[in-house]
Amino acid sequence: MNKLRAAAPLLEQLVPYDPKYLPADAYLSANENAYNPEGALREAIAQAIAKVSLNRYPDPLANGLRERIAQAYDLEKDWVLVGNGGDELLFNLALAWGGPGRAFLNFPPTFSSYEANALLTGTTVIEVPRKADWSIDEEAALAIAASGDVDFIVVTSPNNPTGACAPDSFLRRLLEATDALILVDEAYAEFAEHSLVDWLPEHKNLVILRTFSKAYGLAGVRLGYVLAHPEVITELVKVRQPYSVDSVSQAIGEVIMDHREEFAPRIAQTIAERETMAQALSALAGVTVYPSEANYLLISVPQAAQAWEYLYEQGILVRDFSSAPYLEGHLRVSVGTPEENQRFLKALEEFLDTLPVQEG
Length: 360
Ligand SMILES: *Cc1c(COP(=O)(O)O)cnc(C)c1O
What we know:
Elements: E1 26-28, H1 39-50, H2 63-73, E2 80-83, H3 85-97, E3 103-106, H4 113-120, E4 124-127, H5 138-146, E5 152-156, H6 168-177, E6 181-185, H7 189-192, E7 206-211, E8 224-228, H8 230-239, H9 247-258, H10 264-282, E9 288-289, E10 296-300, H11 304-313, E11 316-321, E12 330-334, H12 338-354
Helix pairs in contact: 1-9, 2-9, 3-4, 3-8, 5-6, 10-12
Pyridoxal-5'-phosphate (PLP) binds at residues 31, 85-87, 111, 156, 160, 185, 187, 211, 213-214, 219, 224.
């Protein structure tokens, strides 16, 4: 037969995820770590991989890695679940807490996976758009949460792509207002030096998501984890793919956990570079830079689509949000090496110089 039955109807409203990850000299589009693990750390990773039995299925729950993560946070192992990147765990959350007849509360603009996962699982999406300064409309959010019609909520802190953390005062009120599951996505928490991990024992409805992809430089490996009450973990285990976290990734994650203190200087450097970049950007006429506690900066730029093109022609890839909902006219730039950051600033300045002078 040369005919094809249509795919599931809910796919009609979806488009494949395309991060526009194009070849470039300076990759400043995906909030990755600019530094590939090297030296003694790379050596330790190679040795750990050499010991892996490739012919055997992995430990489904990655207990060696799970144990190390639990220890790092002073939790029991059954409060931890490792996934194939944070992305897998976000999908698992939508499978376990969403579905037809159930609702998810989202605060756009934010990470696009949450909405995509809700749509894929037939979950209703309720949106409370952020205010002009990108802060959450707290009263609207609390009112909807308290109405009882929401099954799960994701609060990204720091928020991607806008950069700021959600205030503790708001999160506390939200956790008290509802028994809905509240996932706080802390993919960038290392750069904010702030986390809600200590709140876990008091709030059964709190789930914290972390990843190895950003501060720990393992975006290519695919490792993330959630920290939550064991009852939550049990539900997530029911929906996950049993062997989603392969043995090689587990072995690498264990090495990274054993060496995690060594990442502190790089994290501090990234934070310092972010502040240097923010200051330089705020001095550019026509550019607005938003405060960030992550490893990226959201900026509004005149002629943002052309600015993206110009930067790309100079070998610099940044994230183009110039025509994204809520984010028209904005670009997001990841903090790279000091050289990459300088190169980006110089190219953006050159682009702005090509524009006609604005009055006022
Ligand atoms: C990068 C990111 C993640 C997780 O990424 P993985 O590479 O799948 O671990 C989760 N949430 C946000 C907001 C992110 O930016």
